[in-house]
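User: quick one, sequence for these C-alpha cells?
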C-alpha cells in the first residue's frame, strides 16, 4: 500500500463538533457537513466498486455465509483473470494486494539472480551491485526506496516534467546492455499519472536482454482506455523475464478487500505460492474480484467519472498562480509549487483541517520538495479539498 499516512489530523470535526466547522469559516450546511473527516486523499484508493459487487455482498448477508474455506487455489478468480488478461490461469499468482507481492517476489528474484552467477555474487559482496534495480526517478518510491534501504544498488532513470514524465528506452538499454538488472516500471506511473513507456518501446528490450527482469506494475492501467494504451499482460506467456502486476485496490474500488496478482511463468507462480499458505485470498474478496472483472459497465463509468473529477481539480488548480498541475490519466494528480513553498507545508496545513494528501519525500538521493499529489475522491470530497486549497493557496505567490 502506498503509505502516505501522516500524523493524525488536529482538525477532525464530527457531528458533535459543529463549532470547529464555524471556526474554519464553513457553515453547517456547507459541504463540510457531508465530508467525513479525517479524509484521506493521499493513498490513491479508488472510489466506486463495480455495481456487480453489490450483488455479491447481498449473497453474503446471512450468518452462515462465510463458514466455508475458499477454494485453495482461488480457481474461479484465476480463471476470470485469465479471460480478461489473455494469459492461462496457471500464470496467475494471487496475493492479498500487490504491495505484498512486491515485498515477497522482488527480493526473492534478486537473491536468486545473484546466487545464479559467481560474477554477480562477487559484485554483490564487493559493492552490492550483483543485480541492481533500475527505476525511474519519479516512481512508486517503495520499490527503489526499500531496495536502497537494504543497501542494494539502485540506478535511477531520468524522468521529469521536461519529458512529460516519460522514460527513454535508450536510457534503459544504456544500463542493461552493460549489466543484468531488474527494471521496475509502473505504467501508468505513480505519482505522475501518465504512461511512461509503450509496448513498442519496451518489448524489444525485453526480447533482447533475457537475463534482465522487466517488472511492469499496472496498478493504475484500468484508468486508461484500452484504445489508447496496450497492457503488457498478454506478453507474459511469451517472455519469462517479464512480470506484470495488477491490483483491485484502485479502479475497482476494492482496496479493503486486499486482492492483487502477478502474471508470470507457471513455475514461478508455484515457487511463490509455495512460500505462502493456500486459502489466503478469502471467499468474499475472491467473489468480489470476480464480479468486478465481469461487470460490463464499470470501467467505462469510472473513466468518465475520473475525467470529470480531474477537470474539477484542473479548473481550481489553474486559479492558483503558484501551483503547476500535471496532466494525469489516472485517479490522482501530481502538482508542484513554483514559489518556493513545499508539498510538506501544504500537507501539514491540510492535516490541520483533517485532510491527508501525499508528499513525495525522498529516495535514492532525489528530493521532491515542491511536489504534492492529490487523489481524486468523491465529488463532494474533492470540492471540500478545493475549498481548503482556495483558502490556503488561492491568494497568489507566497510572501516570505
Ligand atoms: C504503483 C503501485 N503499485 C502497487 C501498490 C500497492 O497497492 P495494493 O497493495 O493495494 O495492491 C501501490 C499502492 O499505492 C502503487 O501505487
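Assistant:
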Amino acid at each position: 500500500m502506498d503509505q502516505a499516512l501522516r500524523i493524525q489530523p488536529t482538525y477532525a470535526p464530527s457531528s458533535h463538533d459543529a463549532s470547529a466547522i464555524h471556526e474554519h469559516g464553513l457553515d453547517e450546511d456547507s459541504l463540510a457537513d457531508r465530508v467525513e473527516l479525517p479524509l484521506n486523499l493521499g493513498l490513491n484508493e479508488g472510489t466506486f466498486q463495480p455495481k456487480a459487487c453489490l450483488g455479491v455482498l447481498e449473497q453474503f448477508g446471512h450468518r452462515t455465509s462465510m463458514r466455508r474455506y475458499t477454494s485453495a487455489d482461488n480457481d474461479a478468480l484465476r480463471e476470470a483473470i485469465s479471460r480478461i488478461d489473455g494469459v492461462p490461469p496457471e500464470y496467475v499468482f494471487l496475493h492479498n494486494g500487490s504491495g505484498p507481492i512486491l515485498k515477497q517476489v522482488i527480493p526473492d528474484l534478486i537473491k536468486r539472480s545473484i546466487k545464479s552467477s559467481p560474477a554477480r555474487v562477487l559484485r554483490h559482496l564487493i559493492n552490492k551491485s550483483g543485480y541492481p534495480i533500475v527505476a525511474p526517478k519519479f516512481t512508486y518510491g517503495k520499490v527503489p526506496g526499500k531496495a536502497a534501504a537494504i543497501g542494494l544498488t539502485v540506478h535511477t532513470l531520468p524522468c521529469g516534467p521536461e519529458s512529460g514524465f516519460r522514460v527513454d528506452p535508450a536510457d534503459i538499454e544504456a544500463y542493461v546492455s552493460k549489466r543484468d538488472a531488474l527494471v521496475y516500471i509502473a505504467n501508468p506511473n505513480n505519482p505522475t499519472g501518465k504512461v511512461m513507456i509503450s509496448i513498442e518501446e519496451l518489448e524489444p528490450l525485453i526480447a533482447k536482454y533475457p537475463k534482465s527482469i522487466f517488472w511492469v506494475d499496472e496498478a493504475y492501467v484500468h484508468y486508461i482506455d484500452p484504445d489508447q494504451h496496450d497492457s503488457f499482460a498478454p506478453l507474459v506467456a511469451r517472455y519469462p523475464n517479464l512480470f506484470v502486476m495488477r491490483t483491485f485496490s484502485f479502479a475497482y474500488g476494492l482496496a479493503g478487500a486486499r486482492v492483487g496478482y502477478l502474471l508470470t511463468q507457471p513455475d514461478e507462480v508455484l515457487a511463490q505460492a509455495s512460500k505462502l499458505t493456500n486459502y489466503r485470498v478469502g471467499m468474499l474478496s475472491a467473489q468480489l474480484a470476480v464480479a468486478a472483472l465481469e461487470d460490463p459497465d464499470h470501467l467505462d463509468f469510472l473513466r468518465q467519472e475520473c475525467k470529470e473529477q480531474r477537470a474539477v481539480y484542473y479548473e481550481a488548480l489553474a486559479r492558483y498562480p503558484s501551483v503547476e498541475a500535471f496532466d494525469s490519466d489516472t485517479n490522482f494528480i501530481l502538482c508542484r509549487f513554483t514559489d518556493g513553498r513545499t508539498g510538506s507545508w501544504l500537507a501539514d496545513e491540510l492535516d490541520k483541517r483533517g485532510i491527508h494528501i501525499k508528499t513525495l519525500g525522498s529516495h535514492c538521493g532525489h528530493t521532491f520538495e515542491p511536489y504534492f499529489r492529490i487523489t481524486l475522491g468523491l465529488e463532494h470530497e474533492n470540492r471540500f479539498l478545493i475549498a481548503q486549497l482556495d483558502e490556503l493557496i488561492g491568494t497568489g505567490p507566497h510572501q516570505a
